[in-house]
């Protein structure tokens, strides 16, 4: 449980910093970066944090279901643009995948 | 029955049950990346709402309990990210370039297509977050004035399409070395791509998980300033 407390404290710090500095970045992301900074400074991830990560990670999809169910409030939009959206999502993947793969390969060959 | 349907706790319990059913189906089908537990869970809950005629607002009074956990879960991503920083030291430049330019390309294509083909501002703002893992996509989508319910659907569909298209695409082009394939899956298809990579091998899966986390962090920092 001490791992969860750490996460909540960093989330709170993230919210405070976001409000104080009027950052456009979400509070949870600010909290995540603060925790990353703390881990880098400390030089290792403490056991309690590793334990909570192992506990929470498999449950992640569960926490995402409620918002995702909100798709039922968008029926009209999907009826109007559903097919176009599906095509856009499929097409836009191809150039992105090619660019990523090419950089990773070329970099490997030139020893980057 | 009507009374039961109005209780927030009933819907929280039903969501957990739907998730467990999704997990079972995923395991029984040998961890098939095309039926991720979240997809089954959402389909089951949506069906129950449709059948009972209960509104999303009523459902969300219960769903809210689970939704609260998204904040700490995003903070938690610092732990794997910290571990990846060690492993990627030697290749950091090309990994950083691949993540930045690769994810930038797929998003630019989607945004331009959506802008000129559909032309709905809220949809365009939402599609920006399509390639990043759902908890981060939701947080950003709210921040930039997108529709979070739609953001989640875009992310899940992108993940399934990416898991489906990327391995055969790279194989045809003979660019499917383990590291390249894993990284590409993580950049373009986030968590669902990563679970597909897990089936392909340990190296693919490590690179996919790293690319997914890096892409999400990068976009979380950049998108709010440019959208």
UniProtKB/TrEMBL annotation, chain A:
Q: Gene Ontology cellular component?
A: plasma membrane
Transmembrane segments in this chain: where? Answer: 27-43, 55-73, 85-104
Its lineage reads: Bacteria, Pseudomonadati, Pseudomonadota, Gammaproteobacteria, Oceanospirillales
Q: Which UniProt key words apply to this protein?
A: Cell membrane, Membrane, Transmembrane, Transmembrane helix
As for subcellular location, the record says:
Cell membrane
Designated name of the protein: CidA/LrgA family protein
Q: How does it sit in the membrane?
A: Multi-pass membrane protein
Which InterPro entries does the entry mention? LrgA/CidA
From TrEMBL, chain B:
Q: Where in the cell is it found?
A: Membrane
- Membrane topology designation: Multi-pass membrane protein
The transmembrane residues are 6-26, 38-59, 65-85, 92-118, 144-166, 206-226
Q: Give the highest taxon in the source lineage.
A: Bacteria
Which InterPro entries does this one have? CidB/LrgB
**What's one Pfam family here?**
LrgB
User: Is Protease there in the keyword field?
Assistant: no
Q: Which GO terms describe its cellular component?
A: membrane
What residue stretch is flagged as signal peptide? none
What protein does this entry describe?
A: LrgB family protein
Origin organism lineage? Bacteria, Pseudomonadati, Pseudomonadota, Gammaproteobacteria, Oceanospirillales
């Amino acid at each position: 449980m001490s791992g969860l407390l750490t996460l909540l404290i960093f989330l709170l710090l993230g919210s405070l910093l976001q409000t104080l500095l009027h950052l456009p970045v979400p509070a949870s992301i600010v909290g995540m970066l603060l925790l990353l900074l703390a881990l880098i400074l400390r030089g290792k991830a403490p056991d309690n944090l590793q334990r909570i990560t192992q506990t929470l990670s498999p449950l992640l999809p569960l926490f995402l279901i409620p918002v995702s169910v909100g798709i039922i409030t968008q029926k009209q939009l999907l009826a109007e643009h559903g097919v176009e959206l599906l095509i856009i999502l499929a097409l836009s993947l191809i150039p992105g995948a090619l660019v990523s793969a090419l950089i990773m390969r070329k970099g490997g060959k030139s020893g980057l | 029955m009507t009374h039961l349907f109005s209780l927030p706790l009933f819907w929280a319990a039903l969501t957990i049950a739907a998730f467990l059913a999704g997990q079972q189906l995923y395991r029984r089908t040998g961890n098939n990346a095309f039926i991720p537990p979240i997809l089954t869970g959402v389909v089951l809950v949506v069906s129950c709402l449709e059948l009972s005629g209960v509104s999303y607002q009523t459902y969300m009074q219960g769903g809210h309990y689970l939704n609260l956990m998204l904040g700490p879960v995003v903070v938690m991503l610092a732990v794997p990210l910290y571990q990846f920083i060690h492993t990627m030291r030697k290749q950091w430049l090309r990994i950083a370039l691949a993540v930045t330019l690769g994810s930038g390309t797929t998003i630019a294509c989607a945004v331009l297509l959506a802008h000129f083909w559909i032309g709905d501002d809220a949809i365009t703002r939402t599609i920006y977050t399509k390639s990043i893992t759902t908890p981060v996509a939701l947080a950003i989508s709210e921040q930039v004035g997108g529709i979070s319910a739609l953001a989640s659907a875009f992310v899940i569909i992108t993940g399934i399409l990416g898991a489906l298209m990327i391995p055969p695409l790279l194989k045809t082009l003979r660019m499917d070395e383990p590291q390249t394939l894993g990284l590409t899956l993580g950049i373009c298809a986030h968590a669902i791509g990563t679970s597909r990579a897990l089936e392909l091998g340990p190296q693919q899966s490590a690179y996919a998980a790293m690319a997914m986390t890096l892409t999400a962090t990068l976009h979380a920092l950049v998108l709010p300033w440019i959208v």
